[in-house]
Amino acid sequence: MNHLISLNGRIEAYNREVQRLEQKYADRFREDLRMRGLVSYVGNRNIPLLRLYRYKEAFSFRFVEEWLNRFRVNNEDIVFDPFCGIGTTLLAASCQGIQAVGVDRLPLAVFIARTLPLFFQLRPGELTQMFEHLRRKVSSAEPAPVAMDVAIMNVAFPASILLTLRRWKSVIDSLDSPFREVFLVLFFSILEACSYTSKDGQFLRLKQDKRLADPLELLSSKVREAEIDIRWIQKLGWNKHFLPFQVVLDDARQLRNLQFERPPTVIITSPPYVNRYDYTRTYSLELCFHFTHSFSELRELRHSLIRSHIEARLLPEEEAPHPLVRALVDSLRQHSKTLSNPRIPDMLTGYFMDMRKTIREWKKIISPSAHIAMIVDNVRFEGYMLPVDLILSEIAEEEGFITSEIVIARYKGNSSQQMGRYGRVPARESVVVWRKQG
Fold first, then answer.
1. In a 3-state reduction of DSSP, which class is residue 134?
2. How many other C-beta atoms are found inside a 10 Å radius of the C-beta of residue 19?
C-alpha cells in the first residue's frame, strides 16, 4: 500500500511539473507544420553533396537557409553548430559566404563534413578517371585491415563481398588528397547496401534475406552521382561564394579545441535525441572499416558520446538537473521490472546533465544577443510524455538565455510498444529559439 501511495505521489508530481511548464511557455508556442519536411534528412535527398551519404540524423539544407534568413545572417556573422554531423549547417552557411564552425564527437561525421569542401577542388571527369584507375588495381590489392573483433563485422557481409570491400578500401587508402577523402566518403556510402544490415530504428539490424548490392556496381553509380554533383554545385554558383569552414572533433560538453576569429553570433543545430539511439552501433560498419581498430576502441567511443543511449554511464552523485526529469526518473525506477530497458532512468539523467553542460559552454563562447535555433524531439517512456523542448528551454533560461519561441515543426507517433500499451499520443518535434541575454 505504501508503495502505491509513493508511486501515485510521483505521478502527481510529474503531472504538476508538466502543467507548470506548459502554462509557462504557452505564449511562446507557434505551429509551423510547413517545416515538417525540413527537420529531417529527407530534405537532403535532392541536395548536391549532402545526398551522397545517408546520414539519417541530419536535418535539411533548406532548414538552415530558413533560419539564416530569419536571423538575418550576413558575412559579418559566424555560424556555429556544436552537433554538426556531416556538416549541413556549415555547408549551407559557407555557400552564402558566411563563416561557419562545427563540432562533433563522431569521427565518421567529422570526416565527411571535412571532406565536403574538397569536392569544390575537383573538376568534372576527374573522379571517373580515377575510378577507372582504381578498378584496374583492386583485384590484386592486399585487403585493408578492419576491426573484425566487433561482432557485427562477422555477420554483416558474405566473405566474398567483405574481401572485395577490403581491397577497395586498400586502393582508396593509397590515394593522395583530395581523391582519398572523397572516395572514402563514397565507399562508406555503399557499405549498408552491400551488407545484411539496415539502419533501422535504434540499432543496426540484420536482415539475412536482404538482396545485396555488388560493390563495384554501387561504387560506380556513386561516382556518377558525385560527378553530377560537381557540375551541379558549379551551376548553382556555390563555388563563387563558398568559404571553407572549420570542423573540429571535440566534445560539445567541454569545448576545448575551438578557435574563433570572434564570438559566434548564431547557433543552428540539433543534438542527439534522448531516444536510445546509439550512433556507434548505427554506424558501426563505417567505424570498423576506418575509424576504430578494435571493439575496445568502439566501446570507448560509445561511452564518450552525449548520453542519449542505454549504455550511458552514470556517476553515483549525478542527479537529473530539472525537477520534471527527476520526477520521471523516480517514477520509472518504480517501473524497472516492466521497462523495456532498466537503464532508461540513467540515460535520462545523464542526457539532461550533458545538455546543461553543453548549454553552459555556449554561454561562454557566443556573442551577446546571439541567436539559437535547435531542433529537439519530445519522447515517451512508460506512457509518460517528456516535453524535452520545454525542459531544455527552462534549463537554458537558468544558464542565461531567453526563450523567444518554440516552433512546432511536426507531430510524430510513438514506438509500437508505447502505442500498444498506452495508446497513441502525438509527440512534438520542435525548434526551440533562444537568444543570449546581453
1. helix
2. 10
**pLDDT averaged over every residue in the chain:** 92
Specify the pTM: 0.94
Interval 330-344: pLDDT, tens: 888 887 667 778 899
The residues, any chain, with a CB within 8 Å of residue 203's CB and separated by 6 or more, are: 278, 281, 282
Going by C-alpha positions, the residue among 53, 278, 297 that lies closest to residue 188 is 53
Where do the DSSP E strands lie in 239-338?
Answer: 246-249, 266-269
Dist. CA 182–CA 58, nearest whole Å:
20
389-426 burial code (b ≥16 CB/10 A, e <16): bbbbbbbbeebebebebbbbbbeeebbeebeeeeeeee
Do β-strands 401-412 and 29-31 pair in parallel, antiparallel, or remain unpaired? Answer: parallel
Low-confidence ranges of the chain (pLDDT < 50): 1-5, 419
For the stretch 93-107, pLDDT in tens is 999 999 999 999 999
Query: In terms of Cα–Cα distance, which of 168, 181, 155, 171 is closest to 215?
Result: 168
Residue appearing with cell numbers 572549420? 246
The span from the CA of 66 to the CA of 37, in Å, is 12
Task: Kindly state the cell numbers that stand for 215.
Answer: 560493390
3-state DSSP helix/strand/coil % of the chain, to nearest 5: 50, 15, 35
